[in-house]
Structures are given as structure tokens and as C-alpha cells.
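Example with several molecule types.
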Amino acid sequence: MENKLTFDKKIGNRKKSHSISNIFLNIFLMAGSLITIMPLIWMFLSSLKTSKEIIRMPPTFFPTDPTLHNFKELFNTLPFMRFLFNSLLVTIISTVILVIIAALTGFVFAKFNFYGKKIIYSIILSTMMIVDEILVLPLYLMITKVHLNNTYAALIIPFLVTGFAVFLMRQFITTIPNELIEAAVIDGADYLKIYYKIIIPLISPALGALAIFNFIWMWNMLMWPVIAVDSEEMMTLQVALSRFTSMYLTRYDLSMAAATIATIPVLIVYLFLQRMFVRGIALTGIKQ
Amino acid sequence: MKKLKRHKGIVLFPYLVAYPVLIYVMVFLIFPILYLLFLSLSSTDQFSKVSIFKGLDNYLILLKDELFWKAFKQTFILTGIRVITIVPLSLLIAMGINNIKNTHLRNFYSMAYFSPVITTTTAIALVWMWIYDPTLGLANYILSLFGIPSQSFLLNTHIALFSIAIVSIWKDIGWFMIIFLAGLQGIPEHLYEAGEIDGINNWSRFRYITFPLLAPTFLLIMVVVMINSLREFTSIFVMTRGTISGEPGGPVNSTLTLSVSMYKDAFLYNKYGSGAAIAIILLIILGIFTIAQFRLYRVKWEY
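Resulting C-alpha cells for the full complex:
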């Protein structure tokens, strides 16, 4: 009896100290999350401020007189629509193609035997250590040779297959039971049909994750477009943004509006695919 | 794993997929590396674009070049700062969030820490350039509230690299936090319950239950942070080129890293040979880490 009592008391103490540590935990997490999220809220709010308000000291947090003037000025003085269009086009096309090819290649390496399989797979895997910072110089000289500077082709074609994408897809497709595929073969389905009727639906979470990562990665890409493109009408949003500060040295009202525009597409993708996104990181843990 | 049974003679399908992909990889990934290797061993005339074989000259010149060593050192300083901050902080935050029982609060925290990840790097660079502005910036305003004299952050050669490191740390913590969180949630609850009955304290709980089970994730994250830090380009490029000096890696090369240095040599000074040699050196460093990363993936998959 006494034994049980002390035991209960112990648990009671534990709970009490637990709730105190819980308060500390929340304070710590809340402070951290405010520090993390504040610059972004600052960016959004400031994009709505006038050029006068933006240089006021002490700074205001909420815009006293919210206006969309900065966005208007941006779209009027620069072909911002064009930048946005270029970025979206390059990002979407390359991501769609990459995902289709990666899943197809992953399928083949997971479920078939063929001549040269091992060596081809090791070649593909070995490219995982090749990052775009290393490729840009030879790629630049290659596209110059075939006169592809300032084209969408130059921005898209070099990024359609990555070792990681193939590796990831193969890992997931390997877990699909062979019986499923064999049954479909007996039913007379050809492999392409099996690919999009069986494989694609079964690996859709991994496929979604890969698509999101590639979207973000292509959207954020800066070094290659800076090099491959120099005419204004072919610039991506990132290139335009990277030149922004040298063009409008301290027009922070405009630069906040530009930064906001560049963030919105990724934000939309994220809000739509939030679940997939977080699960995808958990599944793969990648960062390209 | 057993492969599919063959039904009729040779199946063409895998050949029609694998071989074109192989050709693509050869043209866009393998050939450029060989080309890069060739460039690094030659010197290219700017005007005629003719390359002359020079052996290891470019490498030897680089190894004697103080600027190269400066970039090399700064690359590893940046990498070091990022690893020792990002890894423990993201683990700590993940463990904190994992302990929050209230779902709304939990979602809010995850969302908040994750928000910089979904913000474009160039946009982040623009925001922080303003925050760091010596006269109009928020950072100096906040410092002035505490009576600290104003700093010139990105324009000060002593603190420019640290100022950029802070931005990149701030941006990346959320990403690794999510990976840790997933790892934590994969730890079976009954292990903690067993510990609870044995009456172990929080530290032993972490030391003997959480950490051993999280070790593969921990190592993987460390390597990934290193790889990303070694490659860091966008934030440095945007934040330094936009300042008054207008020079990537500035002021006075105080934020020069290997990737920025490669870019400048190859594309601003048209020294292809030197740029290529830096790229090859970077490739070797990254290669070592990537092999480590790949080994760890395998461990993770098995676990």
C-alpha cells in the first residue's frame, strides 16, 4: 500500500515538473519560430509600403497606408511577367520530364535483367556527386558551340536526368511485388501500360516528393541561368532578382515586392501539396 | 530480389529505356566532366578559343595562389559554422516539437520553422540585404535598441562571411528539422514507456534511447549539410554582388568561396583553365562526401 502511494506521488511530481518544462519548451519554440518567420512577414508587409514609409526610422511594422503601387511599378518598368513566365515554363517542363524518365528508368533497373545493367546503373549512380556548380563551365562551352545561348532549351535540357532521381525511384519500385507485374503480363498488358497503370499509382507519394523537390530546385537555380542567358527576355525570375540590387540600389520597396512575387509560386505549390511535401522529406531526406 | 520471369526471348523494353538514358547521362554529365578535366589541364586563349595543353600548370598556379587558399579556407569556415549550428539546432527544435501534444501548436511551429525553406533563396537574399543595410536596416535598428553601435555587416570584411552564414543557417534549419522530426516519430513509443518505468531522466532518455536510434539520420544530415555548405553560391552571389563594391565574393574577397571563385575565374575573367581546376578540386571534395552520403542512405534504408 505504502509502496503504491509513493509510486503515485512520484508520478504526480513528474507531471508537475512536466508542465513547467512544457511552458519553457513553448517559450523556446515560440521565440525561435517568431525569429524564423519574422523576416518573411516583414517582406510581405513591406512590399505594401510606400517608398517614403520604407525608409522611415524607427521602422513601422504594419504598412500605415497599404498600396499595390510597388507591384504596379515593377510590372511597368521591367518585363516581370516575362520573367515569371520563363521561370514557370522552365521549372514545370523540366520537372515533368525528369519525373517521367526517372520513374521509367527506375522501373527498368528494379524489375528487369538486361545486358549491361550493372555497369549502366553504376554510371548513373556515380553522377550523384556531380552538382551544377561543377557542370556549368563545360555546359556553357557546349551550348555556345551549338548556339543555344539564350534559349529555353539551354535552361531545360541539361537537367532532365539525375542520378539521385533514378536511385530514388528504383528504391521504391523494388518494393512493388513482382506478382502484380507478372499478373498484368499474363493479362496481355505491355510494359508501358504496366508502367502507367501499376507502377506510377503505387509510387505516387515518392513521385510527388521528387516532383516537389525538383520544382524547388529548378525554381531556385541561379548559377546556370546567369551564365546561359543574358538577354532580358530570356531571364528567369532568379536572374532578374539577382540583378535587382545593382539596378535599384536602395529601392527596398521595389525589391520587397519582387521578392514577394518570386516566393508566391513555391508557396502555392507548398500549400497544395503540403502533406506530400513533409512526407517526402521524411521519405527521402534529400536536398539537391 | 528476384527479377521478372522472362516470357518470350529477349525483352526489348529495358533496352529502349536504359540505353537512351545512358546516352543522355554520357552527353550531359560524363562528357562535361571529361571536358572539364581537359580544360583544367590546358590554357584557353580568350579570343581564338584555342586550347593549349599545359599539364598540371593550372593546379600548380592555384596551389601557390593566396586567393585560392583564402577561398578554400572560407569555404570550410562556412561549412564548419553551418554544421555546428544547423545540426544541433534542428535536432533540438525537432525534439521540442515532437514533445508538443497540442496539434494546432505543433502545426504552427512546424510551419513557422519550415517557412524559409519554401521561400526562394534570391528573395531571402534581398530581404536580408535590407535588414543588413547600415543605415536603413532593421538589424542596426534592433542593435540600437540595446545600445550597440551600428555595424556595416555585408560591407565589413571581418563579419561579411558570418552575416551570410547567419542567413543560410536561418534558411536551412527548417529543412533538417523536418527530417529529424520524421526520424523521431519513427522511434517506437514502447521504448520510452519502458524507460519511464525504469525511471530514467531526460538526459539518459536522450542518450540511451533517442540518440542511438536517430544516429543514422544524424550522420546523414551532417553529411548533407556539409555538401550543401561546400556548394553555397546563391546567397553569397546575390548578397555580395548587390552591394556597393558590386563584386561577387566581396568586399575584398572576404566572402569568396570555391564555387564563387570558380564562377569568377571562368566567367568574369575568362580564365577557363583556372576555373576548371577549381571545379575539379571541388568535385573531388564533394565526391568524398557524396560517397559517404550514399553509404549512409543504404544504412538508413536497411534500418
